[in-house]
Amino acid sequence: MQHVLEKIKVVELGGYIVGSFCATLLADMGADVVKVETFSGDGLRGQLGAFQGYNRGKRGIVVDPRRPEGKMVLRKLAENADVLVQNLRHGVAEQMTVDYPTVKAYNPRIVYLAMPGYGQTGPYVNKPAFDPLLQAMSGAMAAQGGKGKAPVYLRAAISDFSGAMLGAFGIATALYTRAKTGEGQLVNSSLLNAAIAIQAAEFLDYEDKQSSFRMGSLGRNAINRLYKTKNNWIFIGCVFERHWPALCAAIGREDLLKNSCFKSFSSRRKYALTLSEILGDLFKTQSAGYWIKRLESKGVPCSRVNRFREMTNHPQLLANDLVAEHPNIELGIVKQRGMVVNLSDTPGKLQRGAPELGEHTNEVLTELGYTFEEIESLRNAQVIK
């Protein structure tokens, strides 16, 4: 075996982020992923950068799942698959006859991931589910804003991406079980599951629990937050008590150590706004580069705030092969993330960029046993593209 999921066949139904990115993580590990789309395509195809980022490494086909002939194509795909990934709306898999009980009946070895928005049961199962809605519902937006402050929308689709990772983890554990028992199983998760999972510290309640102190969207406290410099933003992350005197030395304000208002963590928290004003005025006097050099020289955890485009040439990412390139018909050479999980003996591979709409329909149907004449007949009937 050269790659950990080599020879594992995956069928992906659905789209947007959670289902697409989950299947891409499997493709990165060497799986043969076939992305099934309707004629209108994945809802993110209009956002080229997003689609490329969530869908590399796959082959793509177009099928009309409403037609009997289209349902037969889906059946043949599922019959030959090891894994099926779907994040369809509640009830849609049943309409397409690719729900778990149906697929299991003819392919008992299938590992079937269902990743709906709010789970399989309950009063929310038919509600629309997009990441910002889950951010709002789960408390993530309120927590990011801070107590008494406006909630904050997180640009990164936290429930989608964590849901994709939960899905890939569930599939991997189910494949491990299948290797021992010979039987597949249903892997159930949801965007709601993911939104709760990534807030494990916050999603904990007990009597007399104290609310977490935060300074809104800028950070946790005066010495663990964002600050504007003369030309950019920086983040200082003073976590341990030893970081406080190191910070004072780095900024040339050892006098703050003698101020009773800032003597301990609890006092610095009490006078956080006052300390933030002092530090904020100071950081604005010099550039980000100047302050990063001073802070690092004293061992103060800190980082310059970078933009995505800057990161594609960042030496730390390049040193760890975290930037990959793919050719694309519309965009030319695309730079995107490299491998984010590395196995020493079965490393996975960057197979290809994201597929064009219906790019591999002929190839995949031929592998399923369709003749050239049958494929052309389906295309003329607009069952496939």
Q: Could you tell me the strand content as a percent range?
A: 5-15%
Order of helices and strands: EHEHEHEHHEHHHEHEEEHHHHEHHEEHH
Largest sheet: 6 strands, parallel
- Secondary-structure-based class equals alpha/beta
Query: How much helix, percentage-wise, in residues?
Result: 25-40%
Mean of all residue-level pLDDT scores:
93
CATH fold-type name of the largest domain: Rossmann fold
**What's the count of strands?**
12
Evaluate the radius of gyration. Answer: 25 Å
CATH class of the largest domain: Alpha Beta
Q: Label the CATH architecture of the largest domain.
A: 3-Layer(aba) Sandwich
Q: What would the principal axes of the Cα set say about the shape?
A: elongated
Write up this protein:
With 385 residues, this protein is α/β, with parallel strands linked by helices. The chain has two domains: 9-197 and 340-380, Rossmann fold (3-Layer(aba) Sandwich), CATH 3.40.50.10540; 216-228 and 233-304, formyl-coa transferase, domain 3 (2-Layer Sandwich). 38% of the residues lie in helices and 15% in strands. The chain has helices at 18-28, 48-55, 68-79, 92-95, 100-106, 131-138, 140-145, 158-181, 191-197, 243-250, 265-270, 272-283, 288-297, 308-311, 315-319, 361-367, 372-380, and strands at 9-13, 32-37, 58-62, 83-86, 111-114, 185-188, 219-221, 224-228, 233-237, 302-304, 323-328, 332-337. The strands form three sheets. A six-stranded parallel sheet has the order 3-2-1-4-5-6, sandwiched between helices. Strands 7-8-9-10 form a four-stranded antiparallel sheet, covered by helices on one side. Helix 1 packs across helix 8, helix 6 (131-138) packs across helix 9 and helix 8 crosses helix 9. It is elongated. It starts with 8 loop residues before the first strand and ends in a 5-residue tail after the last helix. The model has no long low-confidence stretch (mean pLDDT 93).
